[in-house]
Amino acid sequence: MSILSEFKAFAVKGNVVDMAVGIIIGAAFGKIVSSFVGDVVMPPLGVLIGGVDFSDLAIVLKAAEGDVAAVTLSYGKFIQSVIDFLIVAFAIFMGVKVINRLKREEEAAPAAPPAPTKEQELLSEIRDLLKNQQTPS
Questions:
Q1: Which residue ranges run through the membrane (predicted)?
Q2: Is residue 18 within 8 Å of 43, Cβ to Cβ?
């Protein structure tokens, strides 16, 4: 078996294709979540906390010298990333919570009892006929 045919067999397996689709959808969903956080959640939160932006916070470890850039410890970007993560995690948590509630409501809805089988209908008719024969008219 040649390398090309082995690769083809590997690439068209269901798991690989499913994984590729999941990665593509995940990347698209990541853009949606990033837009939600950056464009919907952060502006009101920024107004609420007075426009504080942690990403500019840093400690200069070595000042710039000529053409060499300054060496900084940008802990503010880390803090901002943690805050962004917490907001995204909370938004996803709330979304999953809503989906789970909808699933529980759907499962809690009583299913209609199954229709009687032909045999059950026939036995019911026989029972009714026997009952009618036993009662005096």
A1: 16-37, 78-96
A2: no
pLDDT confidence of 33, banded at 50, 70, 90? confident
Q: Two tokens at 21? A: 């689709």
Asked if 115 and 69 count as a contact pair (C-beta separation under 8 A), the reply is: no
- Within 13 Å and on the Cβ side, how many CA atoms surround 91? 18
Tokens of 128: 């009714």
Condensed to tens digits (0 to 9), the pLDDT of residues 38-67 reads: 788 778 877 887 777 777 888 999 998 888
Which tokens go with 123? 């036995």
* In contact, 69 and 119? CB cutoff 8 Å: no
pTM to 2 decimal places: 0.50
